[in-house]
Amino acid sequence: MSVPRRLAPAGVCGEEGFTLAEMLVALAGAGLLIGLAIGLLVSQSRFHLRNEDAIQASQIARALSDGMGAEIRGAGPGDLLLATPDTVSVRVDVLKAVVCDTASGGSIDLFAYDSTAANIPSRWRGTALSGPYSAAWVYADGFTPASSVSTAAETACRAAGADRANRVSTRWFRRTSGWSGGFAVMPEPGSLARVYGRLTYTIHASDSESGRVSIRRNGQEFVSPLESGAAFEFRLSSGAMQARVASGDLSRVREVRLIGAAVGRNGRAAGRQIVYAMSLRN
User: Fold this and answer.
1) How far apart are CA 217 and CA 203, in angstroms?
2) Minimal CA–CA distance to 110: which of 166, 198, 188?
3) What span, in angstroms and rounded, lies between the C-alpha atoms of 24 and 18?
4) 46 is a domain residue
5) For site-directed labelling of 148, which of 104, 125, 165, 270 has its Cα 20 to 30 A away?
6) Model-wide pTM > 0.85
7) How many domains, the chain?
8) Over 90: is that where the pLDDT of 115 sits?
């Protein structure tokens, strides 16, 4: 026996559609998901930019450490020539020697045991002497004795005990003259001599980025960029910090500090505040 099929009333569909409320809920959910995705992308982008900034700031700090820090730490308190908020100037050795003997005519024989003339302009030179039984140095800025490589100086210095292992060539032995032009007393055998140049670091407005500053080494851009407001300051032997040191107090400086903020590639400091301390050699 067949069961009679019941027909749907006219105007009523067999499949029900979405209601307006359901559509609004679906749209709201989709909007929320899109918002979360956009937020995630923005967050990742900001993290990437911050990471780039941090890397750039670290590179600036490393350049300061490997360059300026190494050179300033090699200077002693007596080598400081200028100490202001935007400039640090020090004597840097280009030649170190020991006095072997005096020769005829007032000449002095030297054994030059170290030469470090690296990118120091030759237009400014000076000479310093320290006696054989003294740790103090006497400076003659702007003066260098006349010097030439000499086999006679080599003979005299080797006889005095220089280069006992016979490892260096004749060019390290010099006969020098004209000491009276810079020093009142001729150096004694066993004295130490230094020929030095002048090395100056300055904080200067950046040539490439408006509102930023760079650090220049003897006039050439060395580190860039930094936020404006960077400055040097100086710790004295008393422990006091000063922004500027008078010429008569330069020998009392024991530490040079650079205070500033490194700028990343995307123009933000990225929280990389720099307080970089450089202790002078004792």
Assistant:
1) 9
2) 188
3) 10
4) no
5) 165
6) no
7) 2
8) no
- Among 73-87, 131-145, 169-183, 258-272, which is the least confidently predicted range? 258-272
pLDDT for residue 13 is more than 60: no
Q: CB–CB of 245/37 below 8 Å?
A: no
Q: Which two tokens stand for residue 158?
A: 């080797």
Quickly state the pLDDT bin for 225 (edges 50, 70, 90).
Answer: confident
Per-residue pLDDT band at 148 (split at 50, 70, 90):
very high
Which tokens in the block code for residue 238?
């008393």
Where residue 70 falls (left for φ over 0; alpha for ψ -120 to 50; beta otherwise) is alpha
Joined together, the tokens standing for residue 200 give 């100056």
Final residue in a domain of this structure, among 164, 197, 230: 197
Residue type, 195: V
**Statement to judge: residues 95 and 185 lie in one domain:** yes
Instruction: Read off the DSSP letter of residue 192.
Output: E
**DSSP code of 268?**
-
Q: In terms of domains, do 114 and 187 share one?
A: yes
Closest CA to 265 of 54, 47, 63: 54
Q: Last residue of some domain: 169, 197, 225? A: 197
Q: Which residue has the tokens 């500090």?
A: 257
The residues with which 253 forms a beta bridge, in sequence order, are 236
User: What do you get for the CA distance between the two ends of the chain, in Å?
Assistant: 117
Does 191 share its domain with 126? Answer: yes
CA-only gyration radius of the chain, Å: 35
Closest by CA position to 143, among listed 216, 105, 192, 197? 197
CB 78 within 8 A of CB 56: no
Question: Domain limits at 79?
Answer: 52-87+199-279
Q: What is the DSSP letter of 184?
A: S
Backbone angles phi, psi at 232, to 5 degrees: -95, 150
In the chain, the amino acid numbered 134 is: S
